[in-house]
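// run 5 | inverse folding | seed 20
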């Protein structure tokens, strides 16, 4: 076992605090990693606050991990000490069901083992995340950092990036397609950059006119203020895809009306019941599709990292020290970050 330093939530109503625990010694297929950077996701906040009612305390959040390999198990063939690597939202799956065989481990029929908050499939230990100085992960779930990628800004690509890239790739977005990106936060700004790099004509939908120039700065070809009925009427039946990154309840009907026939509306942010009700006529009369997507498989995430390195795509980040994580959580709740916080884990040594 290896003594690990971390920051953890000890109760839903308490601030994050230092926490020491033991990581397992590397198994034959394991990679041991010194963590250099860890992104801060809204899921981290939800787990720390037990918003979903499933948290077991103490919990060490963090599933956007970039680090350096320090040791490998005897059967590891793809990595060696010194390699720069990443770990995303998953650290294991059953590996034998159809989704796992198809490379979409996030849909494992037996349920994935999450980077934190899950029971390890082999020894039953509790997984703890990346707000720590080290982690041990099976080789299959470790990603290689491509040459030239900016390590700190690559951390959120392992969650925010793959969440938006996976549906764009799955549904075949390419040059000539018109894509609407709904929302301009951590997911939205990555969606714009990735859809543009795939060749699409991209329009950002935002409720705030203050974000028009911001959206254009990130590469949007057009911006529609969705609270302006005249602007929404002008784009009716013009889009092939809608990438909907909004994480709270919102009216889907105006955006469905903006899709062409056979258009596809993809939910990647909303996990709550859809309110207000979707008008079935918006689907039936134009053969439109309302669907959703969850992160991406390991091979697809590696593809994304390589794609981002090739096209110089970065997540816009603000670096923070681990000691300031509660302040970061509060700012994130207020939307006061452009667009993701990333923890410099060197601060943990202080």
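// decoded
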């Amino acid at each position: 076992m290896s003594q690990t330093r971390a920051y953890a939530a000890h109760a839903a109503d308490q601030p994050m605090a230092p926490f020491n625990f033991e990581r397992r010694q590397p198994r034959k297929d394991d990679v041991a990693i010194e963590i250099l950077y860890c992104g801060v996701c809204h899921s981290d906040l939800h787990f720390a606050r037990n918003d979903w009612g499933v948290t077991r305390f103490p919990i060490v959040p963090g599933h956007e991990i970039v680090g350096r390999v320090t040791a490998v198990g005897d059967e590891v063939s793809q990595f060696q000490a010194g390699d720069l690597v990443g770990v995303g939202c998953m650290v294991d799956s059953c590996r034998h069901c159809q989704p796992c065989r198809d490379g979409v481990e996030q849909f494992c029929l037996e349920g994935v083992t999450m980077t934190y908050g899950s029971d390890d499939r082999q020894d039953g230990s509790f997984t703890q995340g990346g707000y720590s100085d080290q982690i041990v992960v099976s080789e299959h779930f470790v990603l290689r950092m491509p040459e030239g990628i900016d390590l700190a800004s690559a951390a959120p690509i392992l969650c925010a990036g793959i969440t938006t890239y996976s549906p764009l790739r799955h549904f075949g977005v390419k040059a000539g397609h018109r894509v609407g990106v709904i929302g301009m936060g951590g997911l939205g700004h990555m969606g714009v950059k990735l859809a543009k790099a795939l060749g699409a004509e991209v329009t950002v939908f935002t409720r705030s006119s203050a974000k028009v120039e911001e959206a254009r700065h990130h590469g949007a070809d057009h911006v529609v203020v969705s609270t302006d009925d005249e602007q929404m009427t002008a784009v009716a039946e013009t889009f092939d895809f809608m990438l909907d990154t909004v994480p709270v309840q919102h009216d889907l009907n105006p955006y469905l009306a903006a899709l062409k026939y056979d258009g596809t509306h993809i939910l990647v942010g909303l996990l709550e019941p859809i309110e207000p009700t979707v008008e079935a006529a918006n689907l039936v009369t134009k053969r439109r599709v309302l669907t959703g997507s969850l992160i991406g498989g390991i091979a697809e995430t590696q593809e994304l990292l390589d794609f981002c390195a090739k096209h110089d795509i970065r997540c816009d980040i603000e670096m923070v020290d681990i000691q300031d994580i509660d302040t970061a959580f509060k700012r994130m709740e207020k939307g006061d970050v452009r667009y993701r916080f990333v923890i410099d884990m060197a601060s943990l040594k202080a």
